[in-house]
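ARCHIVE CARD
Drawer: 12
Card no.: 0347
Subject: one protein chain, sequence and derived structure
Cross-reference: see card 0346
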Amino acid sequence: MCPIKVLAGSLKGRILKFPENPDITRPIMARVKKSLFDIISMYFTQKNINFLDIFSGTGQIGIEALSRGAEFATFVEKDKTMAECIKSNLLKCKVETKSNVINMDAFDFLEIYSNSKGFFDIIFLGPPYPINISNDLLNLLDKNNILGKDGIIILQHSKHEITLDKTKNFIKFRTKIYGDTVLDFFKQID
């Protein structure tokens, strides 16, 4: 497996730790990560971003966000080995004070933190393939509304999973396809 590197920003070139068991997580491809951050780069120039990375794996998406100027990143990862891997990567990159790793199921996290209305500016969801839970996640986010006023939700999923175009509060405004990987971008409905 290719090393996972931070692509840009203050941590550019840092190599992130990856567990020896590749069955635990499916890292996002470098070209997909680059495209993702090219698309959302304007958000990092507007204000201090509070970033939420759910199904964090190695933490590479949240760490990339920190490298590009996010004020704070919260990582939610159910697997204990991967949560420890994220902590190790944060220490290695010296950004542990700008982050929080929560070793918890994503659905439990979203239920518990439902009182944090408008707290996160960017929410990245990368649930495991081929489990079709994306729409359930979107509906739960719609219900608890932890996304900030001008924030966005990015949903990574398999092209074989059909996702919602709209919920009560969110609407899909962009889709990018990279082989089997799809990135859907949602914003709040005005």
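Annotation on reverse: Strands lie at 4-5, 15-16, 50-54, 72-76, 99-102, 120-125, 147-158, 170-178, 181-188. The mean pLDDT is 90.
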